[in-house]
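Quarterly update from the structural biology core.
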Amino acid sequence: MAANRDPGQPDDGTAASRLGLFLFWIYVALYGGFMALVLVRPDLLSRRPFGGVNLAILYGMGLIVAAFVLAVVYMLLRAGRREGPRS
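Predicted structure, tokenized:
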């Protein structure tokens, strides 16, 4: 039980939800940037800036890496909020 919990502080579930939503919106912004390029400047995505790989592929792979990085950030920040062992 959380009898010693400060009523002004959100519980662990609420804090985790807020953190998750914040990281989710970061990813939505990244994905929205990709979709904006597809709609507004598709010619830009066909450029090959690095080693013959076009920008669309690089951005897509970047989105996959960003999803993984955001998941790791969530895990690390979530683990840092725990106050001792769970029973």
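Residues 12-40 form the longest helix (29 residues).
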